[in-house]
Specification:
The protein has about 130 residues and is an all-alpha fold. The chain contains five helices and no strands. It is flat, with a radius of gyration of 19 Å.
Length: about 130
């Protein structure tokens, strides 16, 4: 009997960890999507003094932008539209606005967003949620 209780507790703990990891990946994905326009702008306007540090910073920033653009390119058009709109608006009231703007039902919005998160995080982090 106690083994069954321990096994169930272990399963619940693993399930909670997996959910926590998924939420962390989703938060990171949204945060990175919100940063992307600023990263592109910084890369475009970065001043280069020819120093190795400046070149290294440019290389790292360019790599981050390329990774985000690659991850976005793996999405279907509807997934990309929903995920980017959600990242920029990101409030419960605006979900209705996004649904209206993109002509999708609320249930479709959540289904597409979940699929987009999966594909985006897989492309970006090598793991899916």
């Amino acid at each position: 009997m106690s083994t069954t209780i321990k096994t169930n507790a272990t399963k619940e703990t693993m399930k909670t960890r997996k959910t926590d990891q998924a939420l962390t990946l989703q938060k990171q994905a949204i945060s990175l999507l919100q940063e992307l326009p600023y990263l592109r702008n910084a890369l475009q306007n970065m001043w280069d003094d020819g120093s190795p540090e400046c070149e290294d910073n440019r290389r790292r920033l360019a790599k981050k932008v390329r990774a985000l653009e690659f991850a976005l390119a793996t999405l279907e058009p509807d997934e990309k539209a929903i995920l980017t709109a959600y990242a920029t608006k990101s409030s419960r009231a605006s979900i209705e606005d996004i649904c209206e703007e993109l002509h999708v039902e609320r249930s479709s919005f959540y289904r597409i967003r979940r699929r987009a998160y999966s594909r985006f995080t897989l492309a970006l982090f090598g793991r899916t949620v």
